[in-house]
Amino acid sequence: xxxxxxxxxxxxxxxxxxxxxxxxxxxxxxxxxxxxxxxxxxxxxxxxxxxxxxxxxxxxxxxxxxxxxxxxxxxxxxxxxxxxxxxxxxxxxxxxxxxxxxxxxxxxxxxxxxxxxxxxxxxxxxxxxxxxxxxxxxxxxxxxxxxxxxxxxxxxxx
Length: 158
Hints:
Elements: H1 3-26, H2 32-52, H3 67-90, E1 100-104, E2 110-114, H4 115-139, H5 149-154
Antiparallel strand pairs: 1-2
Helix pairs in contact: 1-3, 1-4, 2-3, 2-4
């Protein structure tokens, strides 16, 4: 994949996160675990962008948040990822997705990953946890968001 592909995938991810948050709000009441899982998706996105940009971690991986907090962070992350990917795409020469990111995981262990692998992780991590949120909502008798990629494409969102 190239940076333009990642711009499209992150646009989809943002749309899917917002759809999920909209469904959570429409439900009137969802479990705190459901909200915490969405907060985790967004805080992990922030953590990975901070790692890539060599910035210190600014929020916990599992923060306590409200749906409104999540909506605010979703907006922040949408802009931040879009700005980062656009900047990489416009660098001369273009930024390399093969560059290495040096970081410590949540256990304090040192690791190194390619930027492209970190980007893929962020996208798959979000989809994985949105699936868990959908299961939690269904189990409590609430309709989850319809966040399939093809649905977003058919609706013209990505």
